[in-house]
Design a protein that fits this description.
- The complex is a heterodimer of chains A (about 290) and B (about 800).
- Chain A has about 290 residues and is of the alpha+beta class.
- Chain A is built from 13 helices and 14 strands.
- A 5-stranded antiparallel sheet of chain A has the order 4-5-10-6-7. In chain A, strands 11-12-13-14 form a 4-stranded antiparallel sheet, sandwiched between helices. A 3-stranded parallel sheet of chain A has the order 1-3-2, covered by helices on one side.
- Chain A starts with 5 loop residues before the first strand and ends with a helix.
- Chain B has a 7-stranded mixed sheet. In chain B, strands 9-17-16-15-10 form a 5-stranded mixed sheet, with helices on both faces. In chain B, strands 20-28-29-32 form a 4-stranded mixed sheet, sandwiched between helices.
- In chain B, a hairpin with a 6-residue loop joins β28 and β29.
- The chains are: A alpha+beta (about 290), B alpha+beta (about 800).
- At the A-B interface, α13 of A face α19 of B.
Chain lengths: ~290, ~800
C-alpha cells in the first residue's frame, strides 16, 4: 500500500479542525477495520487522522453509570473491573470480538462507527439503552444508539462529527443479561447474535430487552419479542410465542456466511435459550 | 540405537522460534525489483486488446510484459498452460500481463493501470455440464494446435478386477450413494513467492517455495530453452518453507513471470503473494464427486466395490489432475475386496484450476468409502467396527491393485481405536443425548509413491576436519521435520552426536537429485539414502583407521604417561594389525568394538586430520548414495502395480455431540492410531499428526473455497474458516503401532499425509451415530446438518 498522510492530533479541537481542513480525510482509531478495507482496495482517503492521541477519547469513567471513551481499546475496557461487574453482557460481547491481538487495538467507538450489522458490542449496548455522544463544529449532541445506525456501514453521524463516548445508564435493579453469538469457528464475526436482559418479579417478566446482530441491515432491538414476554410469566407457551415472533421480527439476508432461514432459526433458538437461562437465575431468589 | 525414538531439539527450532529463519517473504537480493501480475476479470473471454501504455508511464516501472512482447512459455505436465495468456482467458485468475517496478506498491499500481478489453465467452462451471454435448470448450485446441471436441482431460486411471456385476447380484447386502468434497485451500503459513535472477552469463537462479527443486530445475531449464537461452542452466535454491501441503508440487505461472521479468529487466525480480492473493491466485485442492457402492455377504465379507469419480479440474492441468493415482489405493486396497470397478472422469471447467494437497485424492475417496461402509454395516445389521475387522487387511498380502503389503498394523489400529472410544458401550447407544461415535481407516503409500520413472533420493555426506558431518539431501524441509529425521538417523547410523550433523540448504547446485518431497516420502527415501551413505562413510573411516589408529593411540598413550607415569598399559595390543570391521564409531569416537578402554578411543576429528595431512597424499571423507525404493511404476490404465515400497495404515475414531437446535457439532474426543513402522522423533510425529487431524477437522466441518460462476467469494480468513485452538480443544488419544517395516529406514514408514485422510468420514460417521442423519457433501456445516435434521423430523411426523 502506498503511504498516506497521517496526523495524530492530541486534542479534540485539533482533530475537528484537521478534518475540516482536509477534504476527503478519514478518522482512524484502532485501524482494525479501516486498514483492512484500505488494503482490500477500498477508496483511499486523502489522509488519516488518528484519534488515539486524544486523552478525552480514550478516557472512560465507570461508576454507577458508565461513560466509555470511543477511542479506548476493547482490551482496555475489558480491564475495567467495574465495567465487567456492572455490565457483564457488554464484557461478554467484547470478549467474543475477534482475537486478543485485535482487541488490544480495536476500539469500542470503531466497532460502532463501522456500523456493521454484526458489530458484537451493539446488541449488548442496545440492551442497556446506551447513548452515543457526538461532537462536531456545532458542539455536542447525544443520540440513542438505536438511532445511530442508518444502514450497513453508514451511521447518522455527520461527516464533520466524531464519536466522543458511549454512555450507559446504571442497569435496572435485578437485571440479568446474556449474550449468545453464532459463529463458524471461535474467531469469527457473528452469523447471528442475541443479547438479552430480563428482570422478573413474582414470576412475571417485568423488564425485557432483546437485541440482535447480523440479522437486519443494522443491529436492532426486538420490541415485539420483548412485548410478547413483558408482563407475563415465562411459560413454555410464552417462550414459544416469543421465539416465533423473534424469527419474524428479524430480516436477515443470505450470504456466504449463512442463509436467511438459518439465521432466523438461530435467532429463535437463542431467544428461547436466553429467556430460559435468565428466568432460571430468578428461581429460588423469590 | 541411541537417538531413534527420541526428540532432540530440531535443527531449525531456534531460528524459527526467534524469527531468524529466512522465508521467501524475507528474501532480498541487491537491486531487486518487485513484480505484480494483472489477472483476468472474466472466467472465459477472448482477449481483444491489452493497453499497457499507462502502466509504462508510471515512474518506477521498469518493465511491462504480456504474451505479445515475451517468448511463449508453456507449462504443466499436459503443456496446457501458458505463463502469460494469449488469445483467451479460461479462469478468473488467468495471468494476462505483469509489471516489474522498484517497489511493490508501484508494481501493483501499474498492474492495475493496464487496460484489457475482453469479449466474454459462454463458460462452464459444473463438470457434469462440461461433459454435456454442446458445452463451451475450455480448450478448443490441444497444445499442438489440434482441435479438441470435449472437456474431458486426456488422463486415464482405471481398475477392473473380478466381476463386479455378478458379485453385486450375489451380495446379501448392498449400500450405495454419492459423496462430494469441496475446493479447499492449503493455507500454508508462508505464502507463495519467488525471486528470479540472471547472472551475467545468463544462467538463472530461482529462490523458490518448492517441494520439487530438481523437477523445478528441469521445468525452468525448459523455460530457458523456450526463451531462446540455449545451453543455460537454472539453479533452484529453497529457502525456509512455511508449509508446503502440495502447493510446491508444480511450478507456477508466477515463477515463470518473475523469470521473464528478470530477463526483460536484467535485475532480480521478486513476486510475492500476500494472503488475499494466495487465496485468489494459488490453486486449491480439487473438488470431487464420488459415486460408491459396496456389498457384502451374510457374514459381512465384502463382495464388491464400485467407484466412479468425477473431478472438477478447473481450467488447466497440474499434478493435482493425477489424484486418481492415489484414489486407486483405498479404492482397490482398503479392506479386502475381491471385485472392484474404479473409473474416473477429469473435467476441464472455467473454475480456478486445482492442484495437489496433502493426501492427494485419498481423503476425497476415503470420505465416500468409509461413509458408505457404515451404511453397509447398517444394512447388514453388523456393527461397523466389526465389519471393518472382518475385512481387515493383513500382513503379507497382495491387494487387487498388486500392492505388496508386507507389514500391516490395521487390525491393531481398529481394535485400539474402538477401545479408546469405548465403542462397544457408546456406539448406537440410545442414551437420550445427541452423542455418537464413528470411525474410519486409511491406507496410504508409506514407502514413497512412484508416479515418475525415478522415485529416488540422493544424499552426499562429508566430514570436515573436525568430524562435523555435512549432509546434502535433495529432500525439502518445509516444517515437517525432515532435517530432524536426517539428524537422528545420521547420528545413529554414522556415529556422531546429532548437533554435529549440519544439514545444507537445499540447492540444486550442491545437493543430489531427489524427485520431490511429496507422497509422505521425505524421511523414508532420504533416510534410506542416508543409511546407504552411512555404511560407505563408516567404511571409509575404518579403512583409514586401519592405517592410522596405532599411531594415534601411541600419541594418546605418550600423553597419558606424561601425566601419570604409573598408568596401566592397555589390555589390548593396539600395535597389532586390526581389520577395518573391528572398529566402531559412536558419538564422534573411533574405537575397537571389543574393548571399552577409554585410552583406546580416538577422536574422529583427529583421525580425519591425520588422514588429510598424511605424508604422501591425504584423503577426504565424502561419499554419495542414491536410493530408489523397490516399487513399480503402475500401469494406470489397468490400475495395476506396486507403487510403493510399503504401506501405511491407520484408524481414527471420533466422539461428537450435536446441538440439534443449531446444528453445531462439538468434538468430544478423538482417537488416532497409526501404523508408522517405527517412530523416528516422537515429538515431531505427534505434532505432524495433530496438525493433520486439525486439517482433517477443517475439511470435515469448516473449510470451503466458495465460488460463484468461477469467481472466488471468500479469498480471506474472514470467510475461509480453519479450526482454531478452540475448535481443537478436546482430548486426542494418539497411538503409534510399530510394525518395523523391513524396507523402512530403521523400520519407519512415511507418515506426512495420512493423519488427515480418514478424519472427515470418522466425523460424518459419528454424527450419523449421534443423530441418525448423514451429510454427503463436505463441509458438514451446522446449516446443512440442521436442514437435514428438520427434513428427518418432518418425515417422521
Amino acid at each position: 500500500m502506498h503511504p498516506l498522510p497521517y496526523h495524530r492530533p492530541t486534542s479534540l479541537e485539533a482533530a475537528l479542525e484537521l478534518k475540516a481542513s482536509l477534504p476527503g480525510a478519514r478518522f482512524i482509531a484502532g485501524g482494525t477495520d479501516v486498514m483492512v478495507r484500505l488494503k482490500g482496495g477500498a477508496p483511499r482517503p486523502s489522509a488519516l487522522i488518528s484519534l488515539r492521541g486524544i486523552a478525552e477519547l480514550t478516557r472512560s469513567e465507570v461508576a454507577q453509570s458508565a461513560r466509555l471513551g470511543a477511542a479506548a481499546s476493547v482490551a482496555d475496557l475489558l480491564a475495567i473491573d467495574a465495567l465487567r461487574e456492572g455490565w457483564p453482557v457488554l464484557a461478554d460481547a467484547m470478549n467474543q470480538m475477534a482475537s486478543p491481538q485485535i482487541r488490544s487495538s480495536a476500539t469500542l467507538g470503531g466497532n460502532l462507527c463501522n456500523a456493521a450489522p454484526c458489530a458484537d458490542s451493539a446488541p449488548a449496548l442496545l440492551v442497556h439503552g446506551a447513548r452515543v455522544v457526538l461532537r462536531g463544529p456545532q458542539g455536542e449532541r447525544v443520540l440513542a444508539l438505536e438511532e445511530f445506525f442508518a444502514e450497513p456501514g453508514v451511521t447518522r453521524m455527520g461527516a464533520d462529527e466524531l464519536l466522543m463516548s458511549i454512555d450507559v445508564d446504571p442497569p435496572e435493579p435485578g437485571l440479568q443479561t446474556t449474550f449468545l453469538k453464532k459463529k463458524r469457528v471461535a474467531m469469527d464475526i457473528a452469523i447471528a447474535s442475541v443479547a438479552a436482559g430480563l428482570v422478573m418479579n413474582d414470576g412475571i417478566c417485568t423488564h425485557v430487552r432483546f437485541a440482535a446482530g447480523s440479522v437486519a441491515p443494522v443491529p436492532m432491538r426486538l420490541p415485539a419479542t420483548e412485548a410478547a414476554l413483558c408482563g407475563h410469566p415465562p411459560t413454555d407457551a410464552r417462550i414459544a410465542e416469543a421465539r416465533r415472533i423473534a424469527e419474524e421480527e428479524v430480516s436477515p439476508i443470505t450470504d456466504i456466511r449463512g442463509g436467511a432461514d438459518y439465521r432466523r432459526r438461530i435467532i429463535g433458538v437463542y431467544v428461547e435459550r436466553a429467556t430460559r437461562a435468565l428466568a432460571a437465575r430468578f428461581e429460588g431468589s423469590e | 540405537m541411541t537417538y531413534m525414538g527420541t526428540s532432540p531439539t530440531r535443527p531449525d527450532a531456534a531460528a524459527k522460534a526467534t524469527g531468524r529463519a529466512e522465508y521467501i517473504s524475507d528474501a532480498v537480493r541487491p537491486g531487486m525489483l518487485h513484480g505484480a501480475i494483472r489477472f483476468s476479470e472474466h472466467a472465459h473471454a477472448r482477449i481483444l486488446r491489452i493497453d499497457t501504455s499507462k502502466a509504462e508511464r508510471i515512474p518506477g516501472v521498469r518493465a511491462v510484459i504480456t504474451a505479445e512482447n515475451t517468448p511463449e512459455v508453456r507449462l504443466g505436465f499436459l503443456r496446457d498452460n501458458l505463463a502469460l495468456k494469449k488469445g483467451k482467458v479460461r479462469q478468473f485468475r488467468d495471468e494476462i500481463a505483469a509489471v516489474a517496478a522498484i517497489d511493490p506498491d508501484i508494481a501493483a499500481e501499474a498492474a492495475a493501470a493496464i487496460e484489457v478489453e475482453y469479449e466474454p465467452l459462454p463458460a462452464v462451471f459444473d463438470p457434469i455440464e462440461a461433459l454435456a454435448e454442446g458445452a463451451p470448450l475450455v480448450h478448443d485446441v490441444d497444445p499442438r494446435g489440434r482441435p479438441v471436441t470435449s472437456n474431458l482431460m486426456p488422463v486415464h486411471f482405471r481398475h477392473f478386477s473380478g466381476d463386479v456385476e455378478k458379485a453385486r447380484a450375489a451380495s446379501a447386502y448392498v449400500a450405495e450413494g454419492e459423496w462430494s468434497t469441496p475446493l479447499i485451500q492449503q493455507t500454508c503459513m508462508g505464502t507463495a513467492g519467488c525471486i528470479a535472477e540472471f547472472d551475467p552469463q545468463m544462467n538463472l537462479t530461482v529462490w523458490a517455495k518448492t517441494q520439487i527443486p530438481f523437477l523445478a530445475q528441469r521445468d525452468f531449464n525448459g523455460a530457458l530453452a523456450q526463451m531462446g537461452l540455449r545451453n543455460k542452466n537454472a539453479r533452484v535454491i529453497v529457502p525456509a518453507l512455511g508449509g508446503g501441503f502440495g502447493t510446491g508440487l508444480d511450478t507456477h505461472c508466477y515463477e515463470y513471470i518473475s523469470i521473464l521479468l528478470a530477463w526483460k529487466t536484467g535485475k532480480p525480480v521478486k513476486v510475492q503473494y500476500n494472503r488475499d492473493q494466495e487465496f485468489a491466485y494459488l490453486s486449491p485442492r480439487q473438488s470431487a464427486t464420488v459415486r460408491m457402492a459396496q456389498g457384502c455377504d451374510r457374514d459381512g465379507r465384502l463382495t464388491f466395490r464400485h467407484v466412479h469419480v468425477v473431478q472438477d479440474n478447473g481450467a488447466y492441468g497440474s499434478w493435482g489432475a493425477t489424484y486418481p493415482s492415489v484414489m486407486l489405493l483405498p479404492a482397490t486396497s482398503l479392506y479386502r475386496v475381491p471385485n472392484i470397478y474404479f473409473d474416473c472422469e477429469l473435467v476441464y471447467t472455467n473454475n480456478t484450476y486445482a492442484q495437489a494437497m496433502r493426501g492427494y485424492g485419498n481423503p476425497e475417496l476415503t470420505f465416500a468409502l468409509e461413509s458408505n461402509l457404515d451404511q453397509l454395516a447398517e444394512e447388514a445389521g453388523i456393527d461397523a467396527a466389526q465389519l471393518r475387522l472382518i475385512n481387515c487387511n493383513e500382513p503379507n498380502e497382495v491387494t487387487p491393485m498388486g500392492l505388496k503389503v508386507a507389514t500391516c498394523g490395521l487390525r491393531e489400529c481398529l481394535e485400539q481405536t474402538a477401545e479408546r472410544l469405548d465403542w462397544d458401550n457408546k456406539r448406537g447407544a440410545p442414551d437420550g443425548t445427541a452423542r455418537g461415535v464413528g470411525m474410519a481407516s486409511l491406507i496410504h503409500v508409506g514407502g514413497s509413491g512412484r508416479i515418475y520413472r525415478s522415485d529416488a533420493s540422493g544424499v552426499i555426506l562429508r566430514f570436515d576436519d573436525w568430524g562435523n558431518l555435512y549432509l546434502s539431501s535433495g529432500g525439502v524441509e518445509m516444517g515437517q521435520g525432515l532435517h530432524s529425521s536426517l539428524q537422528i538417523v545420521a547420528a545413529d547410523a554414522i556415529g556422531v552426536a546429532p548437533d554435529r550433523v549440519f544439514i545444507n540448504q537445499t540447492d540444486t547446485s550442491t545437493c543430489p537429485w531427489d524427485v520431490g518431497t511429496h507422497a509422505s516420502r521425505g524421511a523414508f527415501t532420504a533416510c534410506n539414502a542416508l543409511l546407504m551413505g552411512a555404511t560407505k562413510l563408516r567404511d571409509k573411516v575404518f579403512r583409514a583407521a586401519v592405517e592410522l589408529y596405532p599411531q594415534l593411540v601411541e600419541e594418546a598413550l605418550r600423553k597419558q604417561r606424561k601425566r601419570d607415569p604409573d598408568a596401566p598399559a592397555p589390555s589390548f595390543d593396539w600395535r597389532s594389525r586390526i581389520d577395518a570391521d573391528a572398529f566402531d564409531l559412536r558419538e564422534g569416537q573411533v574405537f575397537l568394538s571389543n574393548t571399552d578402554d577409554p585410552v583406546l578411543r580416538v577422536d574422529l576429528g583427529k583421525l580425519i586430520r591425520a588422514a588429510h595431512f598424511r605424508d604422501g597424499g591425504g584423503q577426504m571423507f565424502t561419499v554419495e548414495a542414491f536410493y530408489d525404493p523397490p516399487s513399480e511404476l503402475p500401469d494406470w490404465e489397468q490400475g495395476q502395480g506396486n507403487m510403493s515400497a510399503c504401506y501405511t495404515f491407520g484408524t481414527q475414531g471420533v466422539e461428537v455431540e450435536v446441538d440439534t437446535d443449531t446444528g453445531d457439532v462439538r468434538i468430544l474426543k478423538m482417537a488416532a492410531v497409526l501404523d508408522v513402522g517405527k517412530v523416528i522423533n516422537p515429538q515431531i510425529l505427534r505434532g505432524q499428526t495433530i496438525g493433520a487431524l486439525a486439517q482433517g477437522v477443517g475439511y470435515a466441518l469448516y473449510e470451503e473455497v466458495k465460488t460463484e460462476r468461477g469467481r472466488i467469494l471468500n479469498p480471506n480468513f474472514t470467510d475461509y474458516k480453519i479450526p482454531t485452538a478452540v475448535e481443537m480443544d478436546f482430548p486426542i488419544e494418539l497411538e503409534f503401532v510399530e510394525t518395523d517395516e523391513p524396507t523402512g529406514p530403521y523400520g519407519a514408514k512415511g507418515i506426512g499425509e495420512p493423519g488427515l485422510v480418514p478424519t472427515a468420514p470418522a466425523i460424518a460417521n459419528a454424527i450419523a451415530d449421534a443423530v441418525g442423519v448423514r451429510i454427503h457433501d463436505l463441509p458438514i456445516t451446522p446449516e446443512k446438518l440442521l436442514a437435514a435434521l428438520r427434513a428427518k423430523n418432518e418425515e417422521a411426523t
